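note to self: dont lose this again. the chain is below, predicted strucutre after it. 242 aa total, dont forget to put it in the shared folder this time
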Amino acid sequence: MGWLAELDRGFYDLVFPRDCAVTQEPMDDEARLHLSPAGADRLARIHDPRCLTCGHPFEGLLEGDRACPHCLDLRPAFARAVCAFRARGPARRIIHRIKYERCPFLADDLAHAALADDVFRRHLAGSVLVPVPLHRARKFERGYNQAERIASFLAAHVAGCRAELLLRKQHETVSQTRLGRQERRQNVAGAFVLADGASVDPLTRYVVIDDVLTTGATLHACAVALRKAGAEGVDAAALCHG
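---
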């Protein structure tokens, strides 16, 4: 950040002091603009052991070949998904603000905090990050696509990454929020295709990026579109799981 930007930021902070999105306490001059270290510590971080397919944490002791209940009938087109946080408590509130309260800037801080997870960071390294696209009408209404912002931030902070808008959503779908597992899959089946003029390289590893992984239906549908276009190595990642 240049000195002019620092000067502008200092003036803006003087007029409109920033509070942490979690603790509501005033922010100091931290690496993140709206998420203090204390606030980040309150996020429900995912630790190993976690599912090697969907990234959901295993609770309690892991004995034998334990199957993840989230993956029993998923059969995703992506090889592995990794998530940094559980979508509960403060993390869930931040995601809600990003998506529905016009706070896209919070995506930068949540993505920054996610990169403290070594498994999450290594999962992204050296890949092309492909954000889940919004339908053009939904993007116009919201003003931004949070998955694009997350992918751009991660690509700028992880070695060997770049973000590419390789997919488009060819028809609108209803909100997934109140749909069950099977309904979610049916809702987004065939919704994503390769963007006009885009192409994929079979030798490149792609990671589909979203804010939240719930059932994996959306990430699966995006992975299907990439594989149909010729991609062979396709994984997925989301900031939160749940």
